[in-house]
Design a protein that fits this description.
This protein is mostly helical. Helix content is about 80%, strand content about 0%. The protein has one domain: Alpha Horseshoe (Serine Threonine Protein Phosphatase 5, Tetratricopeptide repeat), CATH 1.25.40.
Length: about 100
């Protein structure tokens, strides 16, 4: 069983597990299924806006899809969420990526 199938099997038992959904999204990116990854990342952030690590990956994915305005919005939301969580490392990563895109 490959990683994607294993993650899907685990998700049947815990469908809202953000770690598993995030990991599955990253696996989808590896195989080029960017729309599936986008959908998963958006679902995570809809359910759990405090799951800070997903903002960066979603925004980077949107950049690759040439959805710049959406990427900017997700970077901004991510910076706000990281600030609330007092996660300076995530905030700095999001801010650097945001500034690289915007400026």
């Amino acid at each position: 069983m490959d990683k994607i199938e294993k993650l899907k099997a685990y998700l049947l038992l815990s469908p809202k597990d953000n770690f598993l959904r995030h990991a599955l999204g990253l696996e989808y990116i590896k195989i080029g299924d960017e729309l599936a990854a986008k959908s998963l990342f958006e679902a995570i952030l809809l359910d759990s806006p405090d799951y800070v690590g997903t903002y960066y990956h979603l925004a980077k994915l949107l950049e690759r899809l040439s959805l710049t305005d959406e990427a900017i919005q997700w970077y901004e939301k991510g910076m706000a969420a990281a600030k609330l969580a007092k996660d300076n490392h995530a905030y700095n990563e999001l801010q650097a990526a945001y500034e690289e895109l915007v400026y």
